[in-house]
Design a protein that fits this description.
4-stranded mixed beta sheet, about 30% helix, single chain, 9 strands, alpha+beta, 5 helices, about 25% strand, rod-shaped, 5-stranded antiparallel beta sheet
Length: about 180
Protein backbone atom coordinates (compact mmCIF):
# COMPACT_ATOMS: atom_id res chain seq x y z
CA UNK A 1 0.00 0.00 0.00
CA UNK A 2 1.14 3.50 -0.61
CA UNK A 3 1.32 6.32 1.85
CA UNK A 4 -1.85 7.83 0.41
CA UNK A 5 -3.81 4.69 1.29
CA UNK A 6 -3.67 5.46 5.02
CA UNK A 7 -4.94 8.61 6.67
CA UNK A 8 -5.10 9.79 10.26
CA UNK A 9 -8.29 8.42 11.76
CA UNK A 10 -8.42 5.24 9.65
CA UNK A 11 -9.26 2.08 11.54
CA UNK A 12 -6.55 -0.55 10.93
CA UNK A 13 -5.64 -4.03 12.09
CA UNK A 14 -2.39 -6.03 12.05
CA UNK A 15 -2.45 -8.81 9.48
CA UNK A 16 -0.73 -11.45 11.62
CA UNK A 17 -2.17 -10.60 15.02
CA UNK A 18 -5.48 -9.68 16.56
CA UNK A 19 -4.50 -6.06 17.25
CA UNK A 20 -6.54 -3.15 15.96
CA UNK A 21 -6.49 0.60 16.37
CA UNK A 22 -6.78 4.06 14.84
CA UNK A 23 -4.06 5.69 12.70
CA UNK A 24 -2.50 8.68 14.49
CA UNK A 25 0.54 9.29 12.27
CA UNK A 26 1.42 8.51 8.63
CA UNK A 27 5.10 8.55 7.66
CA UNK A 28 7.12 7.74 4.54
CA UNK A 29 7.17 3.94 5.02
CA UNK A 30 5.35 3.39 8.32
CA UNK A 31 2.08 4.06 10.08
CA UNK A 32 1.67 4.70 13.78
CA UNK A 33 -1.65 3.66 15.27
CA UNK A 34 -3.09 3.65 18.77
CA UNK A 35 -4.62 0.41 20.02
CA UNK A 36 -7.83 0.26 22.03
CA UNK A 37 -5.59 -0.27 25.09
CA UNK A 38 -3.87 3.07 24.45
CA UNK A 39 -0.57 1.65 23.17
CA UNK A 40 1.11 3.17 20.13
CA UNK A 41 2.42 0.80 17.47
CA UNK A 42 4.64 1.83 14.58
CA UNK A 43 4.53 -0.66 11.70
CA UNK A 44 5.34 -0.85 7.98
CA UNK A 45 2.41 -0.52 5.56
CA UNK A 46 2.73 -4.17 4.58
CA UNK A 47 1.80 -5.39 8.07
CA UNK A 48 -1.53 -3.61 8.44
CA UNK A 49 -4.86 -3.40 6.66
CA UNK A 50 -7.70 -0.88 6.84
CA UNK A 51 -10.74 -2.39 8.47
CA UNK A 52 -13.23 0.17 7.14
CA UNK A 53 -13.88 1.44 3.65
CA UNK A 54 -11.39 -0.82 1.92
CA UNK A 55 -13.46 -3.75 0.66
CA UNK A 56 -17.03 -4.04 -0.62
CA UNK A 57 -17.75 -7.04 1.59
CA UNK A 58 -19.20 -7.18 5.07
CA UNK A 59 -16.26 -6.89 7.47
CA UNK A 60 -18.59 -7.39 10.40
CA UNK A 61 -18.32 -11.10 9.62
CA UNK A 62 -15.39 -12.00 11.92
CA UNK A 63 -14.94 -15.44 10.33
CA UNK A 64 -14.53 -13.89 6.89
CA UNK A 65 -12.02 -11.33 8.17
CA UNK A 66 -9.98 -14.05 9.91
CA UNK A 67 -10.08 -16.19 6.73
CA UNK A 68 -8.86 -13.26 4.63
CA UNK A 69 -6.02 -12.59 7.05
CA UNK A 70 -5.01 -16.25 7.27
CA UNK A 71 -4.95 -16.50 3.48
CA UNK A 72 -2.64 -13.49 3.30
CA UNK A 73 -0.34 -14.77 6.05
CA UNK A 74 0.34 -18.49 6.14
CA UNK A 75 1.26 -19.83 9.55
CA UNK A 76 4.87 -19.25 10.47
CA UNK A 77 7.00 -22.08 11.66
CA UNK A 78 9.47 -21.58 14.44
CA UNK A 79 9.71 -20.77 18.11
CA UNK A 80 6.34 -19.04 18.19
CA UNK A 81 4.63 -22.43 17.94
CA UNK A 82 3.92 -24.33 21.12
CA UNK A 83 6.64 -26.95 21.60
CA UNK A 84 5.63 -30.58 21.47
CA UNK A 85 5.70 -32.44 24.74
CA UNK A 86 8.91 -34.37 24.98
CA UNK A 87 8.69 -38.12 25.21
CA UNK A 88 10.45 -39.52 28.32
CA UNK A 89 13.77 -41.23 27.68
CA UNK A 90 14.04 -45.01 27.76
CA UNK A 91 16.59 -46.01 30.41
CA UNK A 92 19.00 -48.89 29.86
CA UNK A 93 21.09 -49.96 32.85
CA UNK A 94 24.26 -51.62 31.56
CA UNK A 95 25.69 -52.73 34.89
CA UNK A 96 26.66 -56.32 34.21
CA UNK A 97 24.84 -57.78 37.23
CA UNK A 98 21.57 -56.45 35.70
CA UNK A 99 22.21 -58.25 32.41
CA UNK A 100 23.35 -61.73 33.50
CA UNK A 101 23.19 -63.81 36.66
CA UNK A 102 26.74 -65.15 36.97
CA UNK A 103 29.75 -63.01 36.09
CA UNK A 104 32.47 -64.94 37.90
CA UNK A 105 33.32 -67.13 34.89
CA UNK A 106 33.52 -64.18 32.44
CA UNK A 107 36.53 -62.10 31.44
CA UNK A 108 36.30 -58.30 31.30
CA UNK A 109 36.32 -58.57 27.49
CA UNK A 110 33.34 -60.96 27.51
CA UNK A 111 31.38 -58.74 29.92
CA UNK A 112 32.08 -55.69 27.75
CA UNK A 113 30.83 -57.53 24.65
CA UNK A 114 27.62 -58.55 26.47
CA UNK A 115 27.03 -54.92 27.46
CA UNK A 116 27.71 -53.62 23.93
CA UNK A 117 25.48 -56.25 22.30
CA UNK A 118 22.69 -55.38 24.76
CA UNK A 119 23.14 -51.69 23.87
CA UNK A 120 23.02 -52.40 20.14
CA UNK A 121 19.77 -54.37 20.54
CA UNK A 122 18.21 -51.52 22.53
CA UNK A 123 19.18 -49.00 19.84
CA UNK A 124 17.69 -51.18 17.10
CA UNK A 125 14.53 -51.65 19.18
CA UNK A 126 14.24 -47.87 19.71
CA UNK A 127 14.70 -47.15 16.00
CA UNK A 128 12.03 -49.72 15.11
CA UNK A 129 9.57 -48.40 17.73
CA UNK A 130 10.39 -44.73 16.98
CA UNK A 131 11.65 -44.05 20.49
CA UNK A 132 13.63 -40.82 20.29
CA UNK A 133 15.70 -40.80 23.47
CA UNK A 134 17.62 -43.45 25.38
CA UNK A 135 19.75 -43.01 28.48
CA UNK A 136 22.47 -45.65 28.81
CA UNK A 137 23.57 -45.98 32.42
CA UNK A 138 27.13 -47.28 32.20
CA UNK A 139 28.70 -46.14 35.47
CA UNK A 140 31.96 -44.27 35.87
CA UNK A 141 34.70 -46.89 36.35
CA UNK A 142 37.72 -46.52 34.07
CA UNK A 143 35.62 -45.27 31.15
CA UNK A 144 36.14 -48.28 28.87
CA UNK A 145 32.41 -49.04 28.44
CA UNK A 146 31.62 -45.36 27.88
CA UNK A 147 34.29 -45.08 25.18
CA UNK A 148 33.07 -48.26 23.45
CA UNK A 149 29.48 -47.02 23.59
CA UNK A 150 30.51 -43.77 21.90
CA UNK A 151 32.18 -45.82 19.15
CA UNK A 152 28.95 -47.79 18.75
CA UNK A 153 26.82 -44.62 18.60
CA UNK A 154 29.04 -43.13 15.88
CA UNK A 155 28.13 -46.04 13.59
CA UNK A 156 24.58 -44.67 13.32
CA UNK A 157 24.06 -41.59 11.15
CA UNK A 158 20.78 -40.71 12.85
CA UNK A 159 22.14 -40.71 16.42
CA UNK A 160 23.44 -37.78 18.42
CA UNK A 161 24.86 -38.49 21.89
CA UNK A 162 25.83 -36.44 24.90
CA UNK A 163 26.24 -36.74 28.68
CA UNK A 164 22.91 -37.43 30.38
CA UNK A 165 21.42 -35.12 33.02
CA UNK A 166 24.08 -34.79 35.70
CA UNK A 167 21.58 -34.11 38.49
CA UNK A 168 19.68 -37.29 37.76
CA UNK A 169 22.46 -39.70 36.66
CA UNK A 170 25.77 -38.19 37.75
CA UNK A 171 28.74 -38.79 35.46
CA UNK A 172 27.90 -42.39 34.66
CA UNK A 173 25.30 -42.05 31.91
CA UNK A 174 25.10 -41.07 28.24
CA UNK A 175 21.92 -40.01 26.48
CA UNK A 176 21.30 -40.51 22.78
CA UNK A 177 18.78 -38.82 20.52
CA UNK A 178 17.57 -40.69 17.44
CA UNK A 179 16.53 -38.57 14.46
CA UNK A 180 13.92 -39.69 11.92
CA UNK A 181 15.22 -40.87 8.59
Amino acid sequence: MSRKSFQIGDKVELLDDNVAGVVIKVEKEEVTFETSDGFEMKVPYSLIVKTEGQLDIDLQDDNLLQKLKSDLNPKRKGPSQKPKRQQPAMEVDLHIHNLIDKTSQLSNFEMLNIQLEHSRKKIEFAIEKRIKRIVFIHGVGQGVLKAELHTLFRRYDQIEFYDADYQKYGLGATEIYIYDQ
